[in-house]
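Researcher:
Attend to token order:
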Amino acid sequence: MIDKKRLIKESQSRGNKRPSNAIDSSPNQRLKIKRIKTANARSIISQNSDASLENGKLDVAKFVQAREFEIQEFAKSMKRSKAIQKQQTFQSVPRSLRRRAASHHVHLLPPRFRKRALKEIQELTNPPLEPKKRRRITRLTLRRETALRLRQLIRKRKSYHANRKKDQMPVGINTLATKAILEKKFKRRQKDIVWLPTHLWHAKRAHLVKKWGYSIPNHPNDKCFRPTHRQSNSGSGVVFDTSYFGTIIILGTKQSLIEIVRLLTQSNACHDVFVNGQRAYEGPIYNSEEGHLIGECLVYFEQDKVIVRVHPAIYKLVWDTILTISRELQGSSDPSLQVQDCRFAIGSIDIFGPKSLRTITSCLPVRQMDSSWISACIAKDPKFVRPGTVFGLSFFDPRTVVASSRMHKFWMSDKYQMPGDIHAATNNEYNEFISSARESSSTLSPLFTIEGRKIKVEHSRLANDRFRKRKAIMNQIPDPFGVQHSTRKIPTFIDDVSIPGIVIRRQSGGLTVMLPWQWTSYFFKSLVIPGYTIFGGMRQYHQLLQERDLLYFPDDFPGTLAYAEQQLELATESEQKWQRRPKNRRVAYSSLRLAKGDSRGELGTPFASDWNFLLGSETPPWMISNLKQVSKNADRALFAVKLSMIGRGCPAIHARVYAIPRVDYNKWQAVRIDRKFVSGTENYPGCPPRDHLIGYVTTGGFNLRQGKGDSIASLSYAKVREFKLLENRYCVVRDVGETICRLASFQPISI
């Protein structure tokens, strides 16, 4: 019987058989060919000739003549080796300066690379490219092109007038403001979401997420974990668009304003230094009825008004609370009390870095400034400025001023000559500058008035004309200090706009620049300079706060409504992702064997921090802002700590935190002293029982500032007091789905 399958296979093999001299195109064969080619290019042909040596003496002329062939081969080998490993100009540019079309557009490269790139293009296109044949132009073609051009101009004119018809964004007085629409032609896309002023800029450079009613950049498309750390610690800065933070302005008498702030902050923001407007308060905000923590806020007094800046997750709750208190005061003592919703009227930009002051002064054209801002800029580093210090500034239109070509240049107005003050200052004057930079007087900014924010954004063509005129005037002014210090003043025109703004020194070490909403995008683009500064999203903001051992809202605030909503969303997403994986490729949480005597399975839900499982009831917990002020309901109280790993380990989010049992205390003490103990061996201690669970990790990951794993956790105050851990402060951390525990120490964090 004939085997049909065998005959088909043989015929296929005969049909696919290649000649013996065919080149194998497999990856390994191509790699071998490349290696041989490189080796041949680097090899130098030599010859043995000893005619130049006579009686132990070297005849130089005969030696050069004898080695002439080798010298020529050596030069040829260098050329061949260089040609093989040659990189074109656009390939040698740093990643932050690369552009998609830089291979054929020389002007997209930095100026120092353009001559070399132009030479390469001319070599590659030799002979030069022939111009395209001109197409035949008829009367019908002219009519069609003219109609198309007119249609485009009409469309641009309509969108321009629609975008700039209003000189300010909507403000709600005793009611919520209407949503801001960034671009009229994208009105449908903004039906259920609010675009930030820089949305169109971030759309092709970052990954955007829809949260809290906004479209917010989450992280850049490029890898930026290490660059963010470098720029924030030793670079020019990391820039964030934080316009999604809401601003509330309260107008009224001084006593009414103090009463509202007292109920919101439990009198923490009612000290004289805050009430007099010398500094801004940054700290926790509480529920006026129950007194529980609901989030963080920034409060700043300015004569007859108070500015409250809060996170969008709690904006509606804070707005309703302030409106309720104001209505009660209106009926009793202050009928003129007014609450304004300025979410879409005031934008903000945050910048982190030791050179952030220099970056703002170099990149933003300051028109008017006070003496405290000059003192702070002389101090150079924001760490010399006291947290909460507020600077009132006004700016030119950034599109109409020549940008600084170096980060050490300072732009100034006609009134102040900052670099001249620096050169003239002696050591005693410098110390006075530093001391004055730590304090700030009350700042009156037109930014917090409706009339002060009415500044129209002129057309880009008009701004370009103004830019060219100003540049021509500035080029005629000599620079007495050369390149290092520019003292050239910015020429001022009669119709120049004066854009109000304030700069606030934050407790996190960064600076917050508050500006009118319609101008935020232009200032943001001026601050993001390729090669000097980088931009970030919410993930990078979280990373910087973790490196500084600070809490990030709402991730590190369990017990708040915003935290509960976010955790529910993240837990649902994680569970769905886990269920989509095949059974043999996902962690079997139900079969984990943790401690001896305990039942199998993960403690609580493995996709979130299960506070109900930890505390034993479904009553929501509440957060302690300070351990010294614990008074009531301590059984449901939580407090934040910083976990420092002793030895190896990098805990992730939702990791379980245990108290050390007395039975295993000596073993863990040996692990702390002797780092040679390896997990999984007989001497290494096991996982504590489930009744020793005391908390969960809310933020985890690798801390580049410390060079090891680091995390922020929330612990149960009752459990910590039960095991007497406030004195010892050692605990054990275990990641979700694992059985190995790691030793750590904790330090409480005050909010």
Remarks:
- The chain has four domains: 65-126, 205-242+346-457+495-547, 246-341, 561-748.
- The mean pLDDT is 82.
- Residues 205-242+346-457+495-547 form a domain with the Gyrase A; domain 2 fold (CATH 3.30.1360).
